TrEMBL record:
EC number: 2.6.1.18, 2.6.1.40, 2.6.1.44
Enzyme class: transferase
CC cofactor: pyridoxal 5'-phosphate
Reaction(s) this enzyme catalyzes, per UniProt: N(omega),N(omega)-dimethyl-L-arginine + pyruvate = 5-(3,3-dimethylguanidino)-2-oxopentanoate + L-alanine; N(omega),N(omega)-dimethyl-L-arginine + glyoxylate = 5-(3,3-dimethylguanidino)-2-oxopentanoate + glycine; glyoxylate + L-alanine = glycine + pyruvate; 2-oxobutanoate + L-alanine = (2S)-2-aminobutanoate + pyruvate
Function: Multifunctional aminotransferase with a broad substrate specificity. Catalyzes the conversion of glyoxylate to glycine using alanine as the amino donor. Catalyzes metabolism of not L- but the D-isomer of D-beta-aminoisobutyric acid to generate 2-methyl-3-oxopropanoate and alanine. Catalyzes the transfer of the amino group from beta-alanine to pyruvate to yield L-alanine and 3-oxopropanoate. Can metabolize NG-monomethyl-L-arginine (NMMA), asymmetric NG,NG-dimethyl-L-arginine (ADMA) and symmetric NG,N'G-dimethyl-L-arginine (SDMA).
Protein name in UniProt: Alanine--glyoxylate aminotransferase 2, mitochondrial
Organism: Seriola lalandi dorsalis
Keyword Disulfide bond: no
Lineage: Eukaryota, Metazoa, Chordata, Craniata, Vertebrata
Record's keyword terms, sorted: Aminotransferase, Mitochondrion, Pyridoxal phosphate, Transferase, Transit peptide
Length: 440
């Protein structure tokens, strides 16, 4: 470690000594037996060989400790191998691993009731899946069944899954294949107040605003009006007069932690409902307290969707997803049979229930707000220091740092990180940017 960097914050957890196969053998297997897509998405020139995790920390096979700032793609919310969640999983594993929702078993019903209690009325009906792609795929189907309409609108830059149907929703070219995907999906301009044609210094609900000049009077947002005009243009030119749904992440995840003008979604929801469409909030990355100010990202926009999809943080790394909707919309789903073998299995429900309890008991959402705000404020200082950093944005621990000539850094750590961890990360990030600028 360079001498001008601080030591890693202390950790009293001791990982097990790694005694498994060699790194060379793992890479050989990765090349020969894992689908080549696995190699394609290996981000690092020198891959990290992860062995064990505890809370915000990871250890590689050589015993080196890392501060995790990505949480398995915004998935590990309460911390790696959190003792409370681990204990709940072990207890359920001794009792019942799996049966299907054909049968009546306590964990499913206890969890559905608990999860529904975290959502506002009338969002009280739950269907459990295994992933966010499955949840969004199912939400598409339910919206079309309920409305009798077909067309669905999403934002440019959105990511809603990798199934053949949700690939139609996704507007992000690296995740698109040259084959027919979900038809009836139309993209509209993303109201991005940093990269888009309109934006100012008061647009978004974030402790850090853009550096763009803004002449709007208080309570008036020209950028919001312009982006809503683009949505109206999409309605007028690209879809039928009646639509099935509008999908939006409260803060775009894969698109780079993009935030919209404060009142955009509230006005967009009105326009969608006027055309018969359902409003669907994709909370796969923003849910479960990650934005800090609210448990759900949509609450920060002052809206109540018709459907909410969720995954990732719902299970802290255990495969589980969900669609939550109203009784009326849910009743449209029984026009045929639908069955998900693993959705809502006993293990997933026990883990999901423990995650909800842990968020409440540990004050995870509050930590996300306070530590996330501190982190964004410190990152904004680096933006002011280095011209290569164009923007810092987000809420809680859903953060984006956009580089002027490169891609966006997404900072979505386990929500148990501390201010001491933030200071370490910012010092390392500052050193990395300084070294890069010096080489240039």
């Amino acid at each position: 470690r360079p001498t001008d960097l601080p030591e890693l914050p202390p950790c009293n957890f001791k990982p097990e000594e790694y005694k498994g196969m060699s790194k060379e053998r793992m890479m050989e297997i990765r090349r020969q037996n894992c689908n080549p897509m696995t190699m394609k998405i290996t981000y690092y020139k020198k891959p990290v060989f992860i062995h064990q995790g505890h809370m915000q920390w990871l250890w590689d096979v050589d015993g080196r400790r890392y501060l995790d700032l990505f949480a398995g793609v915004a998935t590990v919310g309460v911390g790696h191998c959190h003792p409370k969640v681990t204990a709940a999983a072990e207890q359920q594993m001794k009792r019942l691993w799996h049966t299907t929702n054909i049968y009546v078993y306590p964990p499913l019903h206890e969890y559905c009731e608990k999860l529904a209690s975290y959502l506002p009325d009338p969002l009280k009906v739950v269907y459990l899946t295994n992933s966010g792609s499955e949840a969004n795929d199912l939400a598409m189907l339910m919206a079309r069944l309920h409305t009798g309409n077909f067309d669905i609108i999403t934002f440019n830059g959105s990511y809603h899954g990798g199934s053949s149907q949700t690939m139609g929703l996704t507007s992000n070219s690296p995740y698109k294949y040259p084959v027919p995907t979900g038809s009836g999906c139309t993209n509209t301009m993303c109201p991005d107040v940093f990269r888009g044609p309109w934006g100012g210094s008061h647009c978004r609900d974030s402790p850090v605003q853009t550096t763009r000049e803004c002449s709007c009077s208080q309570g008036h947002c020209m950028a919001n009006e312009q982006y809503l005009r683009q949505l109206k243009e999409t309605f007028a030119t690209s879809v039928p007069s009646r639509i099935a749904a509008f999908f939006a992440e409260p803060i775009q995840g894969m698109g780079g932690a993009v935030q919209y003008p404060k009142n955009y979604l509230k006005e967009a929801y009105k326009l969608v409902r006027e055309r018969g469409g359902l409003c669907i909030a994709d909370e796969v990355q923003t849910g479960f307290g990650r934005t800090g100010s609210h448990f759900w990202g949509f609450q920060g926009h002052g809206i109540v969707p018709d459907m909410v999809t969720m995954a990732k943080g719902i299970g802290n790394g255990f495969p589980i997803g969900a669609v939550v909707t109203t009784p009326e919309i849910a009743s449209s789903f029984v026009k045929a049979f639908h069955f998900n073998t693993f959705g809502g299995n006993a293990m997933a429900c026990a883990v999901g229930s423990s995650v909800l309890d842990t968020i409440k008991e540990d004050g995870t959402q509050q930590n996300s707000l306070h530590v996330g705000t501190y982190l964004m404020t410190e990152l904004a200082k680096l933006r002011d220091k280095y011209e290569i950093i164009g923007d810092v944005r987000g809420k809680g621990l859903q953060i984006g740092v956009e580089m002027v000539k490169d891609k966006t850094f997404r900072v979505q750590p386990p929500m148990c990180i501390t201010k001491e961890d933030v200071d370490f990360f910012v010092a390392v990030f500052n050193k990395a940017i300084h070294s890069y600028m010096a080489r240039k």
